[in-house]
Amino acid sequence: MFPKTKFHLIDRIGKKIKVVNAIKDALNLENVVAEQKPVEEIEGKYDFVVSRAVTGMQDFYKLTKKRISNTNNHAMRNGILYLRGDDAEQEMQDFKQYYKIYNVGKFFYNSFFDTKRIVYIPIYKK
């Protein structure tokens, strides 16, 4: 779908990465790299860090903000896209950086998505 976009997928669990690599190979995707690694070991710079909620936002922000590239190539500023449940608003109350919450249910016509939120945090580099 996005042949010019490079995807770097990581997870601590090797079984998940094996499945991702099998799918990547079956689909002949050349723009995907999948590795079994914790985020702390990643050294690259990325336009976006996309994740499901794996920890609290404060901790996730600290782990990932330095991995966001200074060079912006998109209409949307580089940053973090984080899938949360409907508790996103409550968790973000004390967050000091700018953020925006999107209700996923507005984009998909399935009740499963009604409680899903995407928190977008643009990273402003100086």
Structure annotation, total helices: 3
Q: Which sequence of strands runs across the widest sheet? A: 3-4-6-5
Mean pLDDT: 91
**General form:** globular
Radius of gyration computed on alpha carbons: 15 Å
User: What is the N-to-C order of secondary-structure elements (H for helix, E for strand)?
Assistant: EHEEHEHEE
The secondary-structure class comes to: alpha/beta
Relative strand content: 15-25%
Residues in helix, %: 10-25%
Distance between the termini: 33 Å
Main sheet attributes: strand count, strand direction, barrel closure = 4 strands, mixed
Question: Uncertain segments of ≥5 residues (pLDDT<50)?
Answer: none
Overall number of strands = 6
Describe the structure.
The protein has 126 residues and is α/β, with parallel strands linked by helices. The chain has three helices and six strands, in the order βαββαβαββ. The protein has a four-stranded mixed beta sheet with strand order 3-4-6-5, covered by helices on one side. A two-stranded parallel ribbon has the order 1-2. α1 links the parallel β1 (7-11) and β2. The longest helix has 14 residues, at 14-27. The chain is globular and about 40 Å long.
